[in-house]
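hiii, so i know i said id send this last week but things got crazy w the move. better late than never?? heres the sequnce for the chain we talked about at the cafe, plus the structure i predicted for it. fair warning i was half asleep when i ran it
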Amino acid sequence: MVTDKLQKIRQYQRQMDKLEKELAQFNRKLLAVPGKYGFKSMNSFIDALRSAGGGKGGASAVSSAKGARKPRVTITPEIKQKLKSLVGAGKTGGQIAKTLGISLPSVQNIKKELGLVKKRG
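okay and structure toks below
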């Protein structure tokens, strides 16, 4: 019984040694990444990734992006007319919203106002 446990301990030690070697190999590869892309250090590589990602990253970047709102678009009769012609041309609500620079809910509201939405059941 004791010898079985000792054998298991040795087996686990061999597995740990193997995993440690794999981890060391992975770390070497990871540390070589910045050099592959022309960066002098890991910190400069991380800084470049952060700036490419649009800032600091993490939850703070998401919350700051949510806080920045586009200015509201005033819905004019011209916008309503363009919307009506785009609906007639078979454009989707998302395409119309993007074209006119308004939100999808605004598109739906205007379509409803103009009687372009089918009523349910």
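btw The first helix runs from residue 2 to 36. thought thatd interest u
miss u guys!!
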